[in-house]
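Reference record:
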Amino acid sequence: MAVTAQTRQGVVLPDAPDIPGLGFRPFDPDRDYAAFASLIREAHLADGVDWIPTPDSLRIEHEHSDELHPRRDIAVVEIDGRLVAAAQTDVRTRDGIAVHEIQGWVRPAWRRRGLGRALLQWTERRSVEVARVDGRTGPRTFESWPDEGQTGAVALYESEGYAIVRYGFLMLRDLSEPVPDRRLPDGLEVRPVRPEDHRRIWDADTEAFRDHWSPAERTDADFEGWFANPDLDTRLWQVAWDGDEVAGSAMNFIYAEENDALGVARGWLDHISVRRPWRRRGLASALIARSLRIFRDRGLAEAALGVDAENLSGALRVYEAMGFRRARTGVSYRKAFTVD
């Protein structure tokens, strides 16, 4: 039998499963980050998803979001007072489309009971509420990016009318293999990152990513959040300059706590970008080679990056030529909607 669950501040999940001790409520930033991070960790380790955030990284991400308001945009599920599931929705403008990004997590022991579907439907209703007041015009869509191996999530989205629009790859590179010698193009040099250059490096990366599929409109909050990342170490970054112009960059990170949780020694090339005037000259390969050597010198065993499967700049071919291999596939599911 299904029940309607409702708690304070108006969190309502119609047709929630009838589970003893079940309750729903809004996310509480003052007390929920540790349990929220624990939920994501358990769910992702079970699914083989290589993103294990910390309470601090989640808090900073939320505090530097223009659109996501944790108390209103995250719903949590408890059973006898323990957080067992959660979902959130956020909205970004991408290529003129209001993309309402949806994420959800259920602890493995409580899956296949209807919690995921109830939360997905809540995020859709919450997205519609946001759409009525956010001032955006034009098309809108729900979107989620499950891993291809998350068969339960894939089945859920397909049963709710979502369709595949894009694929992305997680790629890994064994650092015990030789790193190709790739020199910087003539006239370019890599310099240490200085705080006074942060904005110029960010703006150059933003410009370069506008040529990618479905780029998000970045804000000052995005900039501030990126440089507030608790794992930020710009000594790992490789930024190529042509005089006073940033030609390209590799923004590299080492997520120590995530590595411990996954049992890996991994460095991430989180953003690799080259601006149009400096493309097709081998700059990306040179920045990647320098990054791989830095990771190897730090005692890491592998490097990772993500890439759009249909990247128009040829990034996938470059990464494969530099020794990266596809490890997992993410799937962009979307469902268009309108607001009355």
Q: What stands out?
A: The mean pLDDT is 95. The first strand starts at residue 2 and ends at 6.
